Amino acid sequence: MTQRREFLKFLAASPLLTNYSAFAQEVEQTLGQRLTDPSEVINVFEMEAIARERIPPAHLGYLSTGVDSDLTLRANRAGFSRFQIKPRRLVDVSQTDTMVNVLGSEASSPIFLCPVGSQGAYHADAELGTARAAAAKGHHMVLSTMSSTSVEAVAEARGAPIWHQLYSTNRWEYTVAMLQRAEAAGCTSVCLTIDLPGGRNTETDAVLRREDTRNCASCHAGQSKPMFEGFDMTGVMTSDAAMTWSVIARMKEVTDMNIVIKGVEVAADAALAVQFGADAIWASNHGGRATETGRGTIECLPEIVAAVNGRIPVIVDGGFRRGTDIYKALAMGASAVGIGRPYCFGLGAFGQAGVERVLDLLNRELLIAMRGSGTPTIDSIGPDYVLDAGYRVPRGRLGRELL
Ligand SMILES: Cc1cc2nc3c(=O)[nH]c(=O)nc-3n(C[C@H](O)[C@H](O)[C@H](O)COP(=O)(O)O)c2cc1C
Fold it and tell me: What one-character-per-residue DSSP string does 274-342 give?
């Protein structure tokens, strides 16, 4: 953080960049002090700036990191600029409806809360704050294997069926036990994350960890995730490098939950997921935290939707920060859109109230996009409303996220 602030100060002093960087510096340094009520926050980027002031450096590093040079992380944002909205006019948009139903889970908005681990690191409200915000706003929530809070407590706080995200360990009996525990807690679908078969290189995390002067060991020593309760995790991996598509059939033998395959990026894998019996596909590159492909998820979506050809729902996440981003994905054939960091910024900034504010902001922006495009319902948003311009706007000209 210090280095970043020093750098911003340096930029502010530069005659070339004075206007932009002076503003950026102010936003970066004082937004959290000036905006004390979540209702004052006008978009997700401001919420991020506040969260950056309030979350301790090492935890912020974990939340914000991509992998290697964070190219995929940035591609997730830049990818949206390739797609343009084609609005229609003089359609009655006085009544709007954003309800969706994916695999039997009804929600008042197509914006799903992605599984994000360790939410206790961002705010004491942790997953319970997220679940209560999701309940207050009618959003669907997916809980990580790596949650700071037990699946039973979160399911209760949400008050409606949540989905469980699974990292299969390399001990199958543990995987079975986690599936059965999630199902017993009332989860109706399980999202098997397949994009981390063996390690990742999270350098932004490593850099920010260096800046944290707290004694990490005193908090982290002996800590275990509630989902691993009762397991001897010595030598156990939280991914199974030997896993192949047959895992879907093996999971179906031990659970009645729907199986969602999370982490698909190409058409060939989308086709295989359908062939091997997946109930839905979640197009994702883990928020740019898995393989440094350089490809934004929104750019992967068209080939995945084409390969699935309507047979099962497709959910997508990665870089969604605006209602128009969500609109584009829906037009391209997604049944729902996941957000990860945005609601965690809300959580880190203001706890549950911050998550609620992020959901309000994105829902409002989505509704404006729907009305402005002549599409009053989610079903009415189809491929005619989006165009692939075939190029990305160069980074540096995308908008407020560059604060
Ligand atoms: C801090 C953090 C932790 C995450 N933990 C998990 C996890 O435990 N399981 C999982 O499947 N995905 C996890 N993800 C990925 C998200 O589910 C989602 O794919 C991603 O955050 C979407 O991108 P966005 O953050 O740009 O919205 C995590 C993402 C972040 C930022």
Answer: HHTT-SEEEE--TTTTS------HHHHHHHHHHHHTTSS-EEEESS--SHHHHHHHHHTT-SEEEESHH
Which pTM value belongs to this model? 0.93
Which residues does the annotation mark as catalytic? 286
Residue 74 Cβ inside 6 Å of ligand 1? The answer reads no
pLDDT single digits (tens) 292-305: 999 999 999 999 99
Choose the residue to mutate in 114, 127, 151 for probing ligand 1, maximizing ligand atoms within 8 Å of C-beta: 114
Instruction: Tell me what pLDDT residue 193 has.
Output: 98
pLDDT tens per residue, range 359-371? 999 999 999 999 9
> Selecting from 3.20.20.70, 3.40.1160.10, 3.30.70.260, 3.30.590.10, what CATH number does the domain 35-212+224-389 have?
3.20.20.70
The SS3 assignment for 121 reads helix
Which one, of 164, 194, 160, lies nearest residue 177 by Cα? 164
What is the percentage of the chain residues whose pLDDT exceeds 90? 85
Short-list 353, 350, 359, 347, CA closest to 121: 347
All residues at 6 or more sequence positions from 212 whose CB lies less than 8 Å from its CB, including other chains = 56, 57, 58, 61
At 30, is the pLDDT very low, low, confident or very high (cuts 50, 70, 90)? confident
Type of residue found at 292? E
Residue nearest ligand 1's atom 1 by CA? 63
pLDDT band at 257 (very low <50, low <70, confident <90, very high): very high
pLDDT higher than threshold 80 for residue 262 = yes
DSSP 141: B
Q: How far does residue 24's CA lie from ligand 1's centre (Å)?
A: 27
Determine the Cα–Cα distance for residues 165 and 184; give it in Å rounded to an integer.
Answer: 14
Region 304-308: what's the mean pLDDT?
A: 98
CB distance 339 to ligand 1 below 6 Å: yes
Name, in order, each residue with C-beta under 8 angstroms of 114's C-beta and a sequence gap of 6 or more. Answer: 142, 287, 317, 338, 339, 340
Closest atom of ligand 1 to 142 CA is 17
Sign (positive/negative) of CA torsion 13, 15, 17, 22? positive
Ligand 1 centre from 223 Cα, in Å?
Answer: 21
Which amino acid makes up residue 327?
Y
Residue 343 alpha carbon to ligand 1 centre in Å: 11
